[in-house]
Amino acid sequence: MPITLQKSNQLKSIAILMMLFLHLFNRDFTGVFRPMLFVGKQPISYYLSLFCDACVPIFAFVSGYGLYFKYIQNKKEYQDDNYKRLKKLYINYWIILIVFAVLLGLILNKDGYPGSISKFFLNFIAINPSYNGAWWFFTTYVLFVMTSSFWFRIFERSNPIFLFMFLFLGYLIAFYFRIYKTDVFTNAVLSWFHRQTALYFCTLFQFMMGAFALKYQWNKVIKEIFNLVKFKNVLALILIVGLIVFHGLVPNFVVAPFTGLAFIFLFLQIKLPDFVTRFLDYFAPHATNIWLVHMFFYMIFFPGIVYGFKYVPVIFLALVMMCLASSYVINFIKEKIQRII
Question: For the chain, what are the domain ranges?
Answer without folding.
Answer: 5-340
